[in-house]
Amino acid sequence: MASKGSSMSFSRKSYRLTSDAEKSRVTGIVHEKLLNDYLHRIFSSPEHVPTAATSRKPLNFQNLPEHLDQLLHVEDEDEESQGQVEGRLGPSTVVLDHTGGFEGLLLVDDDLLGVIGHSNFGTIRSTTCVYKGKWVYEVLISSQGLMQIGWCTINCRFNQEEGVGDTHNSYAYDGNRVRKWNVTTTNYGKAWAAGDIVSCLIDLDDGTLSFCLNGVSLGTAFENLSRGLGMAYFPAISLSFKESVAFNFGSRPLRYPVAGYRPLQDPPHADLVRAQKLLGCFRAVLSVELDPVEGRLVEKDSSEWQLQGQPTVLLTLAHIFHRFAPLLRKVYLVEAVLMSFLRGVVEAGTPAQAQSVVRQVLDLLWLFMEDYEVQDCLKQLMMSLLRLYRFSPIVPDLGLQIHYLQLTIAILRHEKSRKFLLSNVLFDVLRSVVFFYIKSPLRVEEAGLQELIPTTWWPHRSGREGKDSKDVKDETAEERVRRRAYERGCQRLKKRIEVVEELQVQILKLLLNNKDDNGGEASRYIFLTKFRKFLQENASGRGNMPMLCPPEYMVCFLHRLISALRYYWDEYKASNPRAAFSEEAYIPPQVFYNGKVDYFDLQRLGGLLSHLRKTLKDDLASKANILIDPLELQAATMDDLDEDEEPAPAAAQRPTQALAMGGVLPLPRPSWLSSPTLGRANRFLSTAAVSLMTPRRPLSTSEKVKVRTLSAEQRTREDIEGSHWNEGLLLGRPPEEPEQPLTENSLLEVLDGAIMMYNLSVHQQLGKMVGVSDDVNEYAMALRDTEDKLRRCPKRRNDILAELTKSQKVFSEKLDHLSRRLAWVHATVYSQEKMLDIYWLLRVCLRTVEHGDRTGSLFAFMPEFYLSVAINSYSALKNYFGPVHSMEELPGYEETLTRLAAILAKHFADTRIVGTDIRDSLMQALASYVCYPHSLRAVERIPEEQRVAMVRNLLAPYEQRPWAQTNWILVRLWRGCGFGYRYTRLPHLLKTKPEDANLPSLQKPCPSTLLQQHMAELLREGPDVAPSFLNSVLNQLNWAFSEFIGMIQEIQQAAERLERNFVDSRQLKVCATCFDLSVSLLRVLEMTITLVPEIFLDWARPTSEMLLRRLAQLLNQVLNRVTAERNLFDRVVTLRLPGLESVDHYPILVAVTGILVRLLVHGPASGTERATSVLLADPCFQLRSICYLLGQPEPPAPGTALPTPDRKRFSLQSYTDYISMEELAQVEQMLAHLTSASAQAAAASLPTSEEDLCPICYAHPISAVFQPCGHKSCKACINQHLMNNKDCFFCKATIVSVEDWEKAANASTTTSSAA
């Protein structure tokens, strides 16, 4: 084994302890006096220091073992090894009793010290109990939820409702509710937080029980404990679902030992003394150097010590490690001795000096210890570092976290140690990426934030898009001073956090090193294998929360990974000019279909991978020169069909078949893939990586590459990078892709994993952390309201003033706390640098989708999460990073908006995308995109061809697709142009609660005349576009309004019952949704009539009359239902039920009015006449409904002025803030026109016999005859019927044609025939 500290190489076997025959020869390495001085200097006993050199016994390598035995002798060792201590019963190694001492469902760690609640209120106790003496154990709080920690006897019986402290002889402390429990409960202690350590102390001599939090006593909790025969107490805990803790009974050094109290598990005292003495000897070796020429010892700094191959030093170290190596495998000793030594090295010197010493130490460990000993030692060392970093308190300078990270870096800089830890510990034993997380302090005072940020400030309003925000120029001078002082404090905090973040990035740079492939695989490729497995576990275990890496860890890990990734990407670009900068990064489309990257069971845009490989195998062959192994297709099909495990014979045959194809014999399936917790999809791995079976030379265009499945663990560096640039991950380049490589293939896979991480949990966590900002806004609003009340309160009301002052103080203190927490959140989650990381991911996804789209049908292979991340990252940038940072400040903001708009416009109706969820997401994203001016302008900037195609897809018939979202998009393009449609808050709510700031707000109108113009052109374009679109709109309007009426009938019936009834909130929500849909559909009809009135009014078109009659029928139904006096609608609106705030007369009546005004006032004379006749001819028409719009119970007499509206009645005249005077005049003109036309129609109408009426509706005269059967009806009924059915109403014969029929003409024809 090579010593990394020198240029020489030593064989480990050469420095094993020599035999007696060899010792005489070895003694002469240096002269005896110098050797004696050196050995006495190294192995001196601190208890017995001789006064003179002559009194020392001469030391050499012959008598050194005897001297070491004396030095390491410990008194009372035999007594300690017995493990029996008075006052304690049970095994000497204390763990949780997972065999019988539990209640409920719990998940216990492999070391039987960590536990996670997996049921309502599970309970577990330890294997050891105490009945006499003073004892202590520690509990590390991993989550701050509902838990009760303490002691219980073996006779205590627990269940899912009652845990520790809820029964006699069980006692518990609950830091979540800040109480103590023993059957009854009282206030005790203080609140705990994740990362705290609770010490549980029991004094069975005095019969008392107490607790400490982070080493600070909370006082005596219980006295007069039951003692005596049969009374022994077990450590125990009850915890609710998903809560987790870790126990330390003494297997590791207690973090906060208490004088006089003994841990339940005795520390290894004798071994601890030996290890400390041997460590002293080892440190002496590092600080002393032999000078054979001068014959003296030279004191040196340990950071300058180098192993130079001196036999005397090597033999001395061999003697030390012969005794030290077995001790360094024990958890307690690693943490108490080795960790303490290394921490001292890091804290005492500079980072460079510390790294030098740690490197020398690790070199010596690998040189003088067996591999399994070093590996156990390193594993325990890294686990200890993890615990210390994760649960150390946050101090003002973050010094503890910095030291632990510096030590971690020093260890990982050692190549051999790094590769071992990557292969066996990181991502395997450490399931969470803890070293990249910066936890948020829940106690502001302990973290020193009051000193860092002495002045607090908070924004007055939320700065998210679509809501009002207070401009900086409106600040008062005092507010400006406070804000700037607060920002300076935030900058100080940010600089301290950046030091930690930079250290975390250094760790990832070490793990991503691909130059350390001397004698083995480079670190980066080991990292890729483990990283992919980490992603798989998190992607497959979403429903199994304990298996997941916490999302807050994922956020930090993602940002550090992006920093390290871009560093290596740009470093590669510097040495390879043909490569791309990280700013131009994307994932080439061949990565998605050549199978070299494992996407587990994640959905592709085109469906399942096995299905795509079968249906698109010809496209793969023609466009990418890839042939799928037939055995692969057959295996995928069987995996899809078979729900059980693969039969043994088939499993045995598959390697033989693969070998016959020329492939490599696959390795055995890793055991972690067979875990029942990972689900069926992972066991089959239908999307596993694919191995090449091709000569390592450039491919010609005619050659086809046959591929087969290869698991991620079996991949080598060559499988990823390839021996030629077009191989590896870039196998199967389509002709649309450029020939030059972007970067190293391994970095492409890291980037792909980073995008997957964002999709798995990072986006949800970014949204969750906004809650702190929302809390600040709520408390700021409450404080302003309280201050307003203080100003208005009469001075004589001292009682009210005192209560308001008290509330003001509480709100101010809470805001001070939250504003400092918000500063921490902004520095760690929402800083400008973090925003740029998310923005970079967004641009990567956009370029990836654009390149994938060019491949045609192969675009279907892209995983869905690329589109999801593009949508969600834009949403996060827009909504989560304000008001401190604005997306508009980002470089290339306008171009990015336009590119995203083009993707949404093209792919929301892309037939290559089959997943319902992703199609809905695209539709919702487009609907949100057209709500805001900036993003709407971006839609208008995309090429005209794409805009027209988007509008064409929006106008497609609504059946069998998510029509509601499509309709919202069209409404938002119109909002601001319709009749009375310019409001940002519902007018009827502002009339009843004008001062209520919590009223739901709508986006400011931003109509698009350009897209409206495209819509008009398309509706005029073909004979079928407008009818199919409008018929689907009318059908959905009929359904939505009918559903709404049915639901309000049920609500009214429930409200009228004598017994108390609660209407289901979900029913109220659905009812409100149906109402909103009805209003939006009416607005789309208003837009259509405004843009293209001839569709309804030009009866030269074959469908115009039918559409107009259907429209009139629906408008009359809506008016009659909504405007009837004291009707159902009125009564439900009067109830003002929560959830039905949007249901009122104004929204729906102004929408209907807008349609009627367009038809009857703005249209041409001929069109107005047709519309009037159709409206009046409808049997449901009531002039009273039109009068209702202006607050009139009955039509006014001809020639008289409109009376003043009754304030108690609804009237459009009451909403002059939202309806212009010109619009009101048009309504009055419409009412006058309909009043006159109605009177004329009544005078001119002739009585009609019943036999001349349509036998279907009995509302219109017969006007059509069916051929060939000759049955008759009115045109409206037959036209509507023929939309869905071609059979006659009466005889069910197939209708070939419909002809006009008039009674007079038919009668004259009959008379002439008879003559």
UniProtKB/TrEMBL annotation:
- The EC number(s) attached to this protein equal 2.3.2.27
Q: Where is the B30.2/SPRY domain?
A: 74-254
Mainly localized where? cytoplasm
Instruction: Name a single GO cellular component.
Output: cytoplasm
Q: InterPro entries annotated for this entry?
A: B30.2/SPRY, B30.2/SPRY_sf, ConA-like_dom_sf, RNF123/RKP/RSPRY1, SPRY_dom, SPRY_RNF123, TPR_RNF123/RKP, Znf_RING
User: Which residues are in the RING-type domain?
Assistant: 1254-1292
The GO annotation for biological process reads: protein ubiquitination; proteolysis involved in protein catabolic process
Q: Which Gene3D superfamilies match?
A: 2.60.120.920, Zinc/RING finger domain, C3HC4 (zinc finger) (3.30.40.10)
What top-level class of enzyme does the UniProt entry assign? Answer: transferase
GO terms for molecular function, please?
A: ubiquitin protein ligase activity; zinc ion binding
Domain of life from the UniProt record: Eukaryota
The compartments listed are: Cytoplasm
- This chain's protein is named E3 ubiquitin-protein ligase RNF123
This protein's species is: Zalophus californianus (California sealion)
The beginning of the lineage is:
Eukaryota, Metazoa, Chordata, Craniata, Vertebrata
